[in-house]
């Protein structure tokens, strides 16, 4: 009898121990989930969604023909696009979910929104041809994002790295800026020429082609700056900010033209490097 009571007590203790272990495991899982939902790790996704809101708001401004605020909203979306990636790396929240969310937001803010805005501003004068041009921009944006998402990180693709600080093709924020560049120019010189449908459609087609091209384009994130030039670069940045505050549209236009002018130089440099590699292989 005593032996049976002892066995029953041991079985009860084992069950209690198992339940305590289950409770401890469940508690640990809950703690991990709360850690995953920490404010710091939510910051990148919040910034990404703010970029989405800015892109969608740009369409709203365009619907009421508030062109200045529509372009400002696109620029604000670009700022959030730069900030969310840096925040993800800073807080250690660089996840696959964040990458997919960023891609979807980019399609709206830098693909659909610029196409709709430019169509309402100028391309609608061309009728169906103007709408087809806007759809071309949307399609090339989606193709670029799909190609970007499936490329292997080990391959030399459009994702810039420390070893290869270039994108392949024009990044979507830059393509969106190029698409609305005629609008920015019109804010400075008027609508006489830049709002002509033929000119605007040519810009849209050019931006679409550059997005899906294989041309190397600079990535500011991975550009290596010599230490001796960092002070000068910081001073130039301060000057740029001051100019941006006082003369926003001319400063943005000039900054983009400088960026665009660097692309041919990079293409020539890449061709020379490829030729040098071929000559080295043939020599070996």
Explain this structure.
The protein has 284 residues and is mostly helical. The protein has one domain: Four Helix Bundle (Hemerythrin (Met), subunit A). Helix content is 77%, strand content 2%. It is built from nine helices and two strands; from the N terminus they run αααααβααβαα. The chain has helices at residues 2-36, 39-63, 67-90, 96-121, 128-150, 172-189, 197-211, 230-246, 248-283; strands at 166-168, 216-218. Strands 1-2 form a two-stranded antiparallel sheet. The longest helix is centred in the last third of the chain and has 36 residues, at 248-283. The termini are far apart.
Strand content: under 5%
Q: CATH class, anyone?
A: Mainly Alpha
- Work out the number of β strands: 2
Looking at how many chains there are and whether they match, the oligomeric state comes to single chain
Distance between the termini: 89 Å
Average of pLDDT = 80
What is the CATH topology?
Four Helix Bundle (Hemerythrin (Met), subunit A)
Q: Kindly report the spatial arrangement of strands forming the biggest sheet.
A: 1-2
**What are the low-pLDDT stretches, counting only 5+ consecutive residues below 50?**
152-158
Q: From N to C, what is the helix and strand string?
A: HHHHHEHHEHH
- Total number of helical segments? 9
Structural class: mainly alpha
Largest sheet: 2 strands, antiparallel
| Fraction of helical residues | over 70%
User: How large is the radius of gyration?
Assistant: 26 Å
The count of domains is 1
- What is the second-level CATH architecture? Up-down Bundle
What is the overall shape? globular
């Amino acid at each position: 009898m005593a032996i049976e009571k002892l066995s029953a007590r041991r079985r009860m203790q084992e069950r209690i121990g198992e339940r305590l272990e289950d409770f401890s495991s469940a508690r640990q899982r809950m703690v991990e989930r709360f850690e995953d939902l920490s404010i710091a790790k939510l910051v990148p996704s919040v910034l990404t969604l703010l970029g989405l809101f800015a892109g969608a708001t740009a369409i709203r401004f365009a619907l009421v023909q508030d062109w200045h605020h529509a372009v400002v909203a696109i620029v604000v979306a670009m700022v959030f696009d730069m900030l969310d990636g840096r925040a993800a790396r800073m807080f250690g929240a660089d996840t696959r979910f964040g990458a997919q969310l960023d891609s979807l937001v980019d399609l709206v803010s830098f693909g659909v929104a610029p196409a709709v805005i430019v169509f309402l501003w100028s391309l609608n004068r061309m009728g169906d041809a103007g709408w087809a041009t806007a759809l071309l921009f949307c399609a090339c944006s989606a193709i670029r994002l799909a190609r970007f998402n499936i490329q292997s990180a080990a391959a030399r693709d459009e994702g810039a790295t420390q070893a290869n600080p270039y994108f392949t093709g024009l990044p979507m924020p830059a393509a969106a800026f190029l698409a609305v560049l005629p609008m920015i120019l019109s804010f400075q010189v008027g609508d006489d020429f830049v709002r002509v449908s033929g000119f605007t459609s040519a810009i849209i087609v050019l931006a679409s082609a550059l997005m899906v091209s294989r041309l190397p384009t600079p990535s500011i994130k991975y550009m290596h700056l010599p230490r001796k030039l960092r002070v000068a670069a910081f001073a130039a940045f301060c000057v740029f900010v001051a100019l941006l505050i006082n003369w926003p549209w001319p400063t943005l236009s000039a900054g983009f033209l400088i960026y665009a002018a660097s692309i041919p130089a990079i293409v020539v440099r890449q061709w020379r490097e490829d030729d040098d590699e071929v000559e080295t292989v043939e020599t070996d």
